[in-house]
Amino acid sequence: MPVAVSLDDMLYKRRMTLTELSEAVDITLANLSILKTGKAKAIRFTTLEAICRVLECQPGDLLRVTDEPSDETIATTETGK
Prior knowledge:
By secondary structure, the chain is mainly α.
């Protein structure tokens, strides 16, 4: 089951921009953008903890399991690998 990232929703609820979060967590804007768009393959627990601390939320508020296939699953199915 793919994991979806709800960072955009949480930023909206906290009235915070991605740039503000980037500065508060000391993570590049590019890396946060990859996470926000769901293209990240992994996230360090320390990074997740820092994001949750700044946004005052729990990991479950940012990450959820979805039934939608990920891009990787679709590519694997199409190529048969």
